[in-house]
Every structure is written in structure tokens, then in C-alpha cells.
Amino acid sequence: MFSRGLALNPAGSVEDRVMREMVFRERQERVAHLDAIGKMVAKVFNMDSDKLFGHVVSEYAQEVFQETYDADLLRRKVNALRTAQRRVARRKSEDLRQLDRLERMGMFYDKTLGPDLQPVPEKTKAPKVPNRKPSR
């Protein structure tokens, strides 16, 4: 339906125009709903709703109507995220490789040098107890 309408008429078929109009009206309804809620809240506090919630409604309208959508920015963010994930995976594999190498080195030196060259734990001395003479 969609491709057939575009092929016949560059402006789109009647169904396409009706669908666009429906989407536009739904988006306007969402913004109007938020604006109405803002006006009700502002009325309760006896404030001006445009001063209180004007920026919120305008930011919401930009999101609803996708005015802030930037495909190139989104693509750059996705690529940066993938690069960061690859960097983390490389670092993790390198750390695991280093730990494995260290473990193998420890096993090698334990087998070659023997237990006599392993560090000896320090001996702790018992605390001295003062000698008391019995009192008479």
C-alpha cells in the first residue's frame, strides 16, 4: 500500500496522508494533555502555567514531534558505545591472560625451586607477662 502510493504519486496516497494526519493529531493531543495538566497544577498554586511549565511543555513537544532527532548523532553514539565495549573486552581478556601467565609462572617456580625457597611466614612472639611477687 505505502510503496504503491509513492510510486503513483510523489506526495503519497490518500491513505498515507490520512495516516500522517492521524499521527500528527495524536502528537498534538499528547502535548495538549501535558499542557492541560500543567495549567491545572499552576491553578492550584495560583501561578502562571506558562512561566512555571512552559519550558517543560516545549521540551516535551520537541520530543513528541521528534524535532531533536539526529540520526548522525545517534549513529556516532552507537559507534562510540561499541568502541568502548570492545575496549573493555580487550582489557578484560588482557587482564585474564596476564593472571593466567602469572599463575603459570608461580607453578613453574614452585616446581623448579622447591618449597625451601618459598617465603617463610614471620613468627610472632608471645607477649611477656610480668612476674609478680606474691603479696604478704
What does this structure look like?
The structure is a single chain. The chain is built from 4 helices and no strands. The chain has about 140 residues and is mainly alpha-helical. The protein has 2 domains: about 1-70, no CATH class; about 70-115.
SSE layout and pairing:
Elements: H1 2-8, H2 14-44, H3 49-64, H4 71-113
Helix pairs in contact: 2-3
Brief summary of the model shown:
With 136 residues, this protein is mainly alpha-helical. It contains four helices and no strands.
Features:
single chain, 136 residues, mainly alpha, 2 domains, disordered N terminus
State the helical fraction: over 70%
Tell me how many strands there are. 0
Number of helices: 4
Q: How much strand?
A: under 5%
Q: Spell out the helices and strands N to C.
A: HHHH
Q: What count of structural domains?
A: 2
- In whole angstroms, the N-to-C terminal distance is 115 Å
The coarse overall form would be elongated
Round the Cα radius of gyration to an integer and report it: 37 Å
Largest sheet: none
- Structural class comes to mainly alpha
**Spans with pLDDT under 50 lasting ≥5 residues?**
1-7
Q: Mean of the pLDDT scores?
A: 82
